[in-house]
Amino acid sequence: MSFIRYAAAALLATATMAQAETLRFASFEPPQAYVTKNVLTAWAEDVSKASEGTLDVKMFAGGTLGRAPDQQLKLVEDGVADLAWVIPGYSPGRFVEGSVAELPFLVPDSTAGSKAMWKMYEDGIFANDYNKFKLIGVVVSAPNFIASTKKITEPEDLNGVNFRGPGPVLLTALKAVGAVPIGGITGANLADSISRGLVEGTLTEWTAGETFRVTEVANNYLMAPLGATPMLVLMNKARYDALPEKAKAAIDQYSGAAFSERFGRIFDENMVAARKRAEDRKATITEVDAEAAARWEAAVRPATDAWIAETPNGQQIYDAMKAALAAAK
């Protein structure tokens, strides 16, 4: 009798596995990168478990489905990947509304910023290209600060300096302070570009700094909040629509507001830990007091003014984002 029960259980398990649909989740980051390991992979495992055997979400990290960060969006559009970790700054013009998060001195941290970003989508303020996908998460990093090979304390210290920005708005902010803004350098090439002197530093935050080895080549940090980096987890909409209801329910359970809350909390926890690691390495970390912050904010204000003027409904989006951030805090 025990053999019969064992055989029946084995047959049921085999049948369940056969019914599970595999979803391919692409990340250009290496599998040990903080976000890919602690957020994306954990999400995939939770969704698979909650799907009651209908889904097997597999991570394809390290660019195994496509290495270029600017091609992740196309992987989802073409169905090469079912889901992908996407940095909108690598696809200028596609997710314009969400680039509001890049504006300097706006987003205080990933927790409030990520909650606000989902609120903006939920309220229909972020639309256009977002609605072409099943949106798993729309989140932001903690604010980017200055990481450089030489000490920088005032806006004029960047005058004429080649400096990398991770998105169009951040590049505009760099131009506003007189730097030579350098775009097109992906995270994978960033440390090498700094080491070779192609740029003297970058706008970044601790998580990206460690993932892409910036903290190994730049030892000077100025903690001015010069704009966050918007980030997305997108799913091919047709693929989602074709899934059984249990699979959809599992995805929905861990997406949207739940994803934003989880992402922001985990991201900000790492910001504290990563900064401590930088302090232990005797990195030069310069805080900005109220007077210095006012000088930096005034210096980069043209980037905010230009974004509002050049973005359709720019003032409305900016005001809504400030209100969403205030509510999130």
What's the arrangement of secondary structure elements?
Blueprint lengths: L1 H18 L1 E6 L7 H17 L4 E6 L11 H6 L5 E4 L23 H13 L10 E8 L4 E4 L13 E3 L3 H9 L3 E3 L4 H9 L5 E4 L1 H6 L2 H4 L2 E3 L7 E7 H5 L3 H9 L3 H24 L3 E3 L3 H21 L3 H15 L1
Parallel strand pairs: 1-2, 1-3, 6-7, 9-11
Antiparallel strand pairs: 3-10, 4-10, 5-8, 5-9
Q: Which percent range describes the beta-strand content?
A: 15-25%
What name does the CATH topology of the largest domain carry? D-Maltodextrin-Binding Protein, domain 2
Classify the secondary structure makeup into a structural class. Answer: alpha/beta
**What ranges have pLDDT less than 50 throughout 5 or more consecutive residues?**
6-17
Oligomeric state, counting identical vs distinct chains: single chain
Helix content: 40-55%
Question: Helix-strand pattern, N to C?
Answer: HEHEHEHEEEHEHEHHEEHHHEHH
| N-to-C span | 60 Å
The CATH homologous superfamily name of the largest domain equals Bacterial extracellular solute-binding protein, family 7
Strand order of the largest sheet: 2-1-3-10-4
Note the main sheet: 5 strands, mixed
CATH architect. name of the largest domain: 3-Layer(aba) Sandwich
Average predicted local confidence, pLDDT: 93
Q: Compute the number of strand runs.
A: 11
Task: State the helix count.
Answer: 13
Main location: periplasm
Keywords: Periplasm, Signal
Signal peptide: 1-20
Subcellular location: Periplasm
